[in-house]
Fold this sequence. Notes:
The protein is mainly alpha-helical. The protein is built from four helices and three strands.
Amino acid sequence: xxxxxxxxxxxxxxxxxxxxxxxxxxxxxxxxxxxxxxxxxxxxxxxxxxxxxxxxxxxxxxxxxxxxxxxxxxxxxxxxxxxxxxxxxxxxxxxxxxxxxxxxxxxxxxxxxxxxxxxxxxxxxxxxxxxxxxxxxxxxxxxxxxxxxxxxxxxxxxxxxxxxxxxxxxxxxxxxxxxx
Length: 180
């Protein structure tokens, strides 16, 4: 039987994989369309959602593999500092590196092996899929790990109308407390 902690982690894993796969496919399409505007004509715009959905679903197992191999060990390594703001930066860098390594391995095993590990291009598929996956995983696991390890999580508002809050964990429940 699955405990609540494992259920939350499994849900976060699944959501992170879906976000990473579909955000990666969307970023890949956007960059390709910006670099090669003649790639698709106005009459073919209807195909974009179909292509995003189809290739996004195709990417799901590969994104899951990358998160499983690289994301879970990194989570274990940094779990004691889950509430720290700098982990967002670590997630971006680690997601880019892990995405490149995962895509390189997949390209060598399944595709034609044209992906070069040492090169960085505008349409670097490993980075385009790895960074959104890592950011989604960081965002979804941050509160859960902070609660588990008794760390504080600072939530910053996007607009000026939102105040910064700190989640203070108590024995009974969690409550929002204004940040100093």
